[in-house]
Amino acid sequence: MAATVVTRFAPSPTGQLHLGHAHSALLGWRLARETGGRFLLRIEDIDPVRCRAGFIGGIEEDLAWLGLDWDGPVRRQSSHLDEYRAVLDRLADAGLLYPCFCTRAEIAREIAAIGHAPHGPDGPLYPGTCRHLTPAARAGRLASGAPYALRLDMAAALRRLKGPLSFLECGEGRRRCDPARFGDVVLARKDIPASYHLCVTHDDALQGVSLVTRGEDLRPATDLHRLLQALLGWPAPRYRHHPLLLGADGRRLSKRDGAPTLTALRQAGHSPAEVRAMALAGQPQLRP
Ligand code: GLU
Q: Residue 119 is part of a domain; what is its CATH number?
């Protein structure tokens, strides 16, 4: 018998949910419910500047109004920073992390001096400045109390792999991964002792997520997530990256571009069934 599907919806509470979120949540929920699986709700709130605790209640209320239920308690990432620290310690003990003291401006200057920087999914690749610090220089900077991020030594990480990495994309088959295109990615920020990539990979493993349902925009991140899973000995879930919901103007729905929030649709008198249909149809047919 096939193992039970465990999937999840993992919003960041940076605002109210809009139709694009409803689309993603409904796909995951249906996949779980139609197969007798589990659907988890996880709040990805490690960034105290962008996230607001006040939005969390609204997210739960909107999902419940839409008719979605979830299994078990809601996991809030900000309550588990010690777990992410322990994962960082494992990677550091394996010699795969180094502290990076560079500011954004210093990185930009270094890239300008080199003349070019390859671009990865998260932006220009880090030129490796702090990877080349001597042990004495590094110890001196640490002792001075200078703030630092923790970066993955990508070349060292790739040397640990026993073979090529891939992931199973539902409906497409096996896709080859190229995590090197992230370069020496930040796994713990200067201001937050963790990062999206680290937390999401840890939590999916801890929560037994077997099917990651999320937007196509996060597909490139999967290459890096597979690398972390391999380094840490965690299982590889299956993935279902869904196309992003587009507005009538053909552009992806986003909060910044004024996508209709679920709260606004509810207040305008739409029923949950109507909003579910809009979210699954792909084109919002808004009541004038
Ligand atoms: N928290 C992420 C977001 O709101 C989603 C992460 C994921 O599904 O992997 O975009």
A: 3.90.800.10
